[in-house]
Amino acid sequence: MDQARSTISKIFNGEPHSYTRFNLTRNMEGDNSQVEMKLSSDMDEDTGGKGAGEHLNHNSNRKPYVAQKLGRTPKNLCFMAVATLLIFIIGYLIGYLVHRKKDLAPTCDDSTVIFDNGAYIETGAAPLMNWAKVKKLLAEQVSADKFDSVFREFSSDNHRAGSLSDEVLGEKVVKRFREYGMKTWIDEHFVKVQDPPASGSNSFSYKGKQERPTGFLSYSANGTITDSVLYAFYGEEENFRLLKSRNVNMTGRVMLVRTGRISFAEKVANAAKMGASAVLIYPDPSKSSIGGSTQLYGHVHLGSGDPYTPGFPSFNHTQFPPVQSSGLPTILAQTITLDMAMNILQQLGGANAPQDWESSKLGDDSDVITLGVDNVLREKKIVNVFGVIKGFVDADRYVVIGAQRDAWGPGFAASTVGTSVLVELARSISDMVENGGFKPRRSIVFASWSAGEYGSVGATEWLEGYLSSLSMKAFSYINLDGVVTGQKHFKVAASPLLHGLVESTLKEVNSPNKAGSLFSEFAKPNMESNVLEPLKLDNAAYPFLAFSGIPSVSFRFTSENSDYLYFGTTLDTREKLNEATNNKVPQLAEAATRVAGHMVLRLVHDHLLRMDVEKYNKIIHNRVAQINNKVNSMLKMQPQLLPKALTMQWLTSAAGSYGRASRDLAADIRSSNMEDIEMCRTLNDRIMAVERNFLSPYVSPRESPFRHILLGSGPHTLQALHGHLEALRMDHPEADADLFRSQFALATWTIQGCANSLAGDVWSLDNEI
């Protein structure tokens, strides 16, 4: 045998230690198995101690050497026969293994390969554990008794974004993830935020009395103004329309509005549209338990992320030209206490306020106020931290679950509870994988965000930094911010694609308040009206959905339909949350963990993503019907106000195309072969593309970052098109018929493009789609 090996080595130019390598590469839990075969040994065995180089360099002796070899014909023929046989066997083995590689490609069933050494190596498909067993494993992991210690670990009296306390909490999260055996990493950003002035407060003066509120609104314009006060209730668009209908002059006025219903940023933006010079925001008097001297904190950027790097990540400011988000306000904005606001309201003159506005007067030109805002713009380093549980089949597809870590003060409901649920869920699922035999098909990324209080800055910067990758691979986001603020109601804001998943989850998770499921307690008889609510701009899940096109969900136990009373204050403590929940914070946190756990496990357990691709049909149909009705009405009554030759044919056709394409995809899903892993992946990719394709490709992420034409914000949305029609009907000076026609055409093709994508391969398209 040694002589045969020596002969083979001579065939390969006599080089010593020659290797031939071949790989058996399969998607086996993310690993590659490599087989290495050594085909030669020391040449000295055949050359009597002479190296191969020495032997081959004697060219003058080549003929005698050959003759000598030929002279030993029988022996050499034997060697050659053995060598030929070896080469044939090796070739056969290579061919066999290549053939086996195809045969053993992962399927949706369990499968193993037994090599000669008896080792069992999985081929890449995760065993499909019975869903009932998965639920049981999670139930065994999650317990209310475990939360008190976790709450203590992640509580802090002051952990504003970028502070040392914020970083320390991040390090604790990373440490926990590592203890659970997860791969961890961090993501640093250098962002610009506004903090209070060096003096510690801004100031205002009204009728001889000066006040210095210590609360503030980040991203307000700076300066000093002196103008008259105008009471505008909640600062909603309908409030300003009512004032306009009464011929109230709003230009150059300081709007006095209360908290609630919409975000601070939306209140300021609405006031700016009316020509206001400033906005003062105070606590809603109907929530009087907040106290008369409680300070408010927040931001007024009509968007998310760092407003000084709009549309791109703040990894390094020096790489980009100085720009600002179009959502930054141009007017002053400041919070005041309830006592300060009541002092102003009680002295207002002018016209009577609407009866349901809870104030006697609106204010007139004599109600003059001087306001000075001098916030300081600072650059801060913020750190997002991550851990991942890798999937066993489609490891490059992942669900992201996250919670903000920072807060204005203690932030117990705003950040501590969500962070604790995040960590407990990471521990539970890690243990299910390590010790319970559960193998997720897809990966789970756990994220702890910083700078959430400044407008989901940490999360948005991460999205902007990795948008091209995330939009193709992240198939869902689950938000844990503010998951426990009460116990009387349960609310969910989600992409329509996830409504079915939400419903099945509520039917499976028991209520912490009484016997029965969450569905039976909160959702009956109509989940849509009792549980579902719109996903708002100030929700951390919003940029995932409207900016990145990733189906997202946010949920909360709450005592009221409005936001938690103590958000944006320094009173957000464990004691206040105990009062709001009747001392059931651990039990509600356990229930929130189960809700998030059931959703995330369903998304990584099933062969196909549990998303209802037909859910958007009704939404598109309703929006198109609204536009159609408005156009038909104007064609009859005011045709001169519409663009020439405007027709609804193509928008209606695009809506029909989406409906057919989504039904065809649903049919493909129902008739799919679950044993075909490639088919499963292809169908999942088509499902993932639904939300992403609703992002308008015709608008700039910098000018209109929330590009979703159905759930986003901006002139490109179908809702904005309907509003533009109304402006044309009213002959509003800012209405532009040509601009409407352009937006109309782009929205039409966005819907048609989404339908084309749903149809699958390009050869699947025809005139009906």
TrEMBL record:
Top-rank lineage group of the source organism: Eukaryota
Keyword Lipoprotein: yes
Primary location recorded for the protein, binned into one broad class: membrane
Role noted for this protein: Cellular uptake of iron occurs via receptor-mediated endocytosis of ligand-occupied transferrin receptor into specialized endosomes. Endosomal acidification leads to iron release. The apotransferrin-receptor complex is then recycled to the cell surface with a return to neutral pH and the concomitant loss of affinity of apotransferrin for its receptor. Transferrin receptor is necessary for development of erythrocytes and the nervous system. Acts as a lipid sensor that regulates mitochondrial fusion by regulating activation of the JNK pathway.
Signal peptide: none
Protein name: Transferrin receptor protein 1
Stretches assigned to the PA domain: 231-292
